[in-house]
Model the fold of this input.
Amino acid sequence: MWPFDDSQDRAAAWFNYWKGFAETDDEALRFGQPEGSKLGEELWQVYTYRYFKIIDFATNGVKGKIEEDIVPVINEHVESLNERHRTLCRKDRYGLVDYSKWLEEKEYFFTKVTLPLLISAEAEVKNFISEGLWEIKEDKLFPPETPVKIRNHKIVPFINVHFATWFNENIDAIFEVHVVEPCVIYLTELIDSTIDDPYLNDKSKNYNTPDTPNISPYDYEELCASMLNENGWVAQATKKSGDQGADVYAEKNGISVVLQCKLTNAAVGNKAVQEIISGQKFMQADFAAVVTPAKYTPGAQDIARAAKVLLLHHDDLPHLESLCKRILS
Done:
């Protein structure tokens, strides 16, 4: 329990302690009050709650402006975007799609067309919050379980002043850390969603689940390992837990690969790629790949390309060694 004290000095001391973590250790705010701190538990929760409450409000506000002001602009250019995508994406002699020229085009469109609008949206929301921070009703900034005696304690107005002043002084940095990145990702995904990628609908591959009766996700992992073993790899499915995202580990001719195997009919997104990157680091493998009978989202393709993660259909597994070597060339 926090030892109530009415002095303004105590209010300043408590708030300065909290903001030290807000400015240097964001993880401490997300995962709880540091052990042994002198700041009362209730006070820590109150100001951490309002910190992220305002950030959520800002992020949702910018996303709303994106929907209102930027999506119509994107829609005006859908035909041109798809035409450029069809022109710039080409399959090589190995049947692999080279998206590099399209990614340059998408970056150009994002930078020249949508980024100025995004900057304007962020500035508008930032100004709204900065001007209205003092007017937000206090009952909106307390966790629901906050005791009445804390909500109504006479020291709270002093700390509110410290909080609002500090937040306004640091609003640019707070937006940069918490608001800009998720809104950029959101806008990029909206652009990706307008693209009708013919290579994601390639009928030459079987995009249905394998014809194995009642196959389970773990069976699919075993199936992928078996296919590799049949093609000269030494492969085995990892344990069901503790694999850090790696479902299969395989070695051949001095190279090692970890696979995440996704048995699904839905398009595989960013999360699977991020997980296998972690699995690669954990298993210290040379290469990483995601394998699925389904498709991949454009966002997953972007991350995989940057991290040199292979995105495969299980029919690609017999060619895994050459695909890995191609990354090195």
Notes: Residues 200-209 have pLDDT under 50 and may be disordered. The domain at 202-328 is CATH 3.40.1350.10 (Trna Endonuclease; Chain: A, domain 1).
